[in-house]
Amino acid sequence: VQTCALPISVILVFALPAVALLMLWKGWWLPGGSLALLAFFAFGARAAFDARGQIRERRFLKEAFGSYVSPQILKEILGGRLRPGVRAHRQRIAIFHCNIRGFTARAEATPPEAVMSLLNDYFGVATEAIYRHGGTTNKFLGDGLLAFFGAPQPLENAERCALEAAQDLLEGLQDVNERLRQQGQPPLVVGVGIHTGEVVLGHVGGATHQEYTAIGAVVNMATRLEDLTRTLPYPVICSAPVADAVGRAGGLQDLGVQPLREQAPIAVFGWQPPLSPRSAVEPVPPPQPAPEART
Predict the structure, then answer these.
(1) Alpha-carbon distance 95 to 197, whole Å?
(2) How far apart are CA 71 and CA 137, in angstroms?
(3) pLDDT tens across 110-138, in order?
(4) Closest by alpha carbon to 203, among 72, 92, 85, 91?
């Protein structure tokens, strides 16, 4: 049906006026109601033609930029809710930062093509886990990844979504590490830091290139929490506000107050998510957006 919509609309747009002119030239006059009906069909055909063009344009944008922009951001852009010039605003979100342990030394001893292939495998697992739980990837930083939950679309419990994404990431890496083991290579070991709080969300950049991002101390804190996974025996470290947001459930371990690089010491929690083979993991239902506040 969609394939026929364009030719039919084109025929109607050009044929109906032509028929009307032919009838006038022949001296055939139509009652006012018929003329109104003819005009209505012409208007409808034009509207169908324009709608078809918009659908094709949206499909093209999704195909062209779907792998370059997070689904959450692309949805907001296509919906006209996220565009350059929109004023920055403050909002509470959860920040997710992950990194590969010992990757610099590994990259120096590995051909660049193999390094890029390995990074693509790792980021593929990470982004899939983040998107599955409603998150937005913000930056790829070498072997690190910065993401946030709760923007541009709000989530009912952004902290829980971030923790569940970390669990999915670690589960998905089991497949990658099994392939590395078969190739005689060491496994990937990652650390994840999660913090929550108020940030400034908006566009950063110049007139020709802009990026939707989050700025604030919360972002830096998540990076410092990820650093703690190097010294503490937990792959996931989160702050007390994150733990409080999920009721300190799911096996979160209170690690007390810990010193942070270039930051004041804070109370942190460690998490060793229960992992199962990826094939045995049941599909996770997509997170439900938070209800809009009524005014």
Answers:
(1) 8
(2) 9
(3) 999 999 999 999 999 999 999 999 999 99
(4) 85
